[in-house]
Amino acid sequence: MQAARCGQADDPSMSKVKTQRRCKPTGGRGRGAASVADEPVPALEMEGFEPEVETSAGQQDQVAGAVRYAWLGAGQCGGRLVKAFHDLGYRKLLAVNTTRRDLDLLDVPAGQKLLMDIGAEGAGKDMERGRGAVDQYDQEILHRMEEIVGHDVDHIMVCFGAGGGTGSGSAAGLVELARRYARSIGLKDPARRVGVMMTLPTAGESSSPRVAQNAYTVASELSLLAWQNKLSPLVIVDNDKIRHVHPNLTVKQFWPTVNRTVAGLFDVFNRLSYRPSEYTTFDPTDYYSIIMAGGCAVMGLTQVRDYRDKFAISRAIKQNLEQTLLAGQFDLSRAKVAGSIIVGGRRMMETVPGLQDAIDFGFDILADITGQATVHRGIYEDNREVLRVYTILGGLPAPTARLEQLRR
């Protein structure tokens, strides 16, 4: 068969197609080389096309707060915590677990639960299996976050229980995924846009060496990251302390009561800082400076019954930090920033003489307790004739004594 000449097609069906191929010159500076170099680059239709990039707002919260939070819950405990926030109106949440039955029992929308299927037995108490689950499902988790969380978010909180395999093992991986997500949607300082809410096991649970070692390992790792400003804040809930504070709860009441209380305490600062006050406003910037302070955060609430006593509010502030459901044994004098909010009834604010002096004295006591911390103040009124004192501290070093109990 005779070879086709340059510019002719072997296939007759190609005869209607004008070929753009040129013959290579046989030598010297032939016309072919100059013509190819001089030809203009063809314009493509897509060059003028500007794609419309759609950004998803994700699920819409039913709560008015200063900070738009998203919640990632890992394991059974983490799932229960995000369920408590869901009940308060927070809708940007995702619960992940290696055990299907735990997810089936969790009353949140099915699309906001993800099974990390690593085998019928789940992670058990094996942290390595928990770590492996996040590595295996990282893209699926990020995809769900894009759908649920969207771009309309300020801060991401990872919730889990220290001691188990899924929660303890997956926590650090979820923090890193949340940090990657925050960076991808353009949040500034993405490391400190991710916080952790971690529960410590009770003394009975810690009698298992595996549980105690898991809890100590993950708590130490996250405490170091928090102190290095690689996450903010680290909120530590001490289940053993709660068991002593509320000894009369039934088995059915215990976990729902604990989770509602912890979530409600966290939520109240977000709500109050969003509200204006005709007295002294604890504004969103004040609140978020505490959340972004790095290190550990503690918070508490006390009702003041004898509010006519000049020293009642200062005593309440001290009790806030001693009787909180969160972990104790912090060195409060090393806090970087603090906030205290006083909420009283309208009639009380109008008629009780000397109440302002008592409030100011309480704020001064908080400043003394925290040393060099910046202290933000807020005074609000509502329809309840009860005086409440809310206190929050941020930028604290880890409670090493409590963690050493786990190690021992």
Q: How would you describe the oligomerization state of the chains in this entry?
A: single chain
CATH class of the largest domain: Alpha Beta
Tell me the span between the first and last alpha carbons.
88 Å
Secondary-structure class: alpha/beta
How many distinct domains?
A: 2
Q: What's the rounded overall pLDDT mean?
A: 84
Strand content: 15-25%
Helix content: 40-55%
**Which H/E pattern describes the elements?**
HEHEHEHEHEHHEHHHEHEHHEEH
Q: What coarse outline follows from CA principal-axis ratios?
A: globular
Rg (CA only): 30 Å
Can you describe this structure?
A 10-stranded mixed β-sheet has the order 3-2-1-4-5-6-7-10-8-9, with helices on both faces. The chain has 408 residues and is of the alpha/beta class. It has 2 domains: 69-271, 3-Layer(aba) Sandwich (Rossmann fold), CATH 3.40.50; 285-396, Tubulin/FtsZ, C-terminal domain (60s Ribosomal Protein L30, Chain: A, 2-Layer Sandwich). Helix 7 (209-227) packs antiparallel against helix 14 (400-407). The chain is built from 14 helices and 10 strands.
Task: Briefly summarize what is shown.
With 408 residues, the chain is an alpha/beta fold. Helix content is 42%, strand content 17%.
Descriptive labels:
408 residues; alpha/beta; Rossmann fold; 60s Ribosomal Protein L30, Chain: A; 2 domains; ten-stranded mixed beta sheet; 42% helix
Topology:
Layout: H1 31-38, E1 69-74, H2 75-87, E2 93-97, H3 100-104, E3 113-115, H4 127-148, E4 155-161, H5 165-184, E5 194-200, H6 203-206, H7 209-227, E6 234-238, H8 239-245, H9 251-272, H10 284-291, E7 296-304, H11 312-323, E8 337-345, H12 346-351, H13 355-370, E9 374-382, E10 387-396, H14 400-407
Parallel strand pairs: 1-2, 1-4, 2-3, 4-5, 5-6, 6-7, 8-9
Antiparallel strand pairs: 7-10, 8-10
